[in-house]
Amino acid sequence: QGQLVESGGGSVQAGGSLRLSCAASGYTYSRYCMGWFRQAPGKEREGVAAITSAGLQSYADSVKGRFTISHDSAVNTLYLQMNSLKPEDTAMYYCAARSGYCYFLLSRHEYNAWGQGTQVTVSS
Prior knowledge:
Layout: E1 3-7, E2 10-13, E3 18-25, E4 32-39, E5 46-52, E6 57-59, E7 67-72, E8 77-82, E9 91-99, E10 113-114, E11 118-123
């Protein structure tokens, strides 16, 4: 069974940047999709950004132009570079993965493996 471990969360002021990392151990699939999701208190978990093994990327409209997802296959680590952070980006951020194809990259129902989450807090 694989494991996903997030890191890089923290507290920043609006306009600042953070880079989240997700170390994936035990995942050696040739086809996969991986994504970042977030959940604020009282809200549903929502897809933020996702990437496939073929390099296809997808972003939520609310983060387009500010967030960038990437995957380093050499170290099997997923990243989320977050720039121009806003208070509404405050949430727990989760890494997710699955082997094979994903048809709806930003749907949480596509994924069957989740990390424990890392908190991001953006103050105004």
